[in-house]
Amino acid sequence: MSCTFFFFKVRILSKKTPEQITKNMKAVKNKGSKIEVMLMKELWSRGLRYRKNVNSICGKPDIVFKGKKVAVFCDSEFWHGYNWEERKHDFKSHQEFWIPKIERNIERDKEVNSELEAEGWVVLRFWGNDIKKHLTECADKIEQAVRENE
Q1: Within a domain: 1
Q2: Sheet holding 63-65, edge to edge
């Protein structure tokens, strides 16, 4: 009987309160993430100079080569809906909030791409896991786009 009670008590304690969830979500960075820093360091080591999070450009790209008109976005899988049609069923709570929110993020990404491309920008988007696993290849694509727009 005491084992069952202990297990039940642990489950209750491990569940996060709305205040804890709010605190955790507020701590999520919108710039300077691990994937961004990895990619920026690689580009810098190649002698490529860029600007970060430029407010004046639609979508506020993570990395900008303003004179070359190359905008780079480092998209996390969660917030930008990687493999969305399969993953959207993974949400167990607050589906009425999360599903529309992430679907709007996906739609906004498409709108930003269209607007930037209409203004003559080259838009590159990389998933966080691609940056982590294939950093050199991601940097190669960026470097190629920058060199082609010289």
Answers
A1: no
A2: 51-52, 63-65, 70-75, 122-127
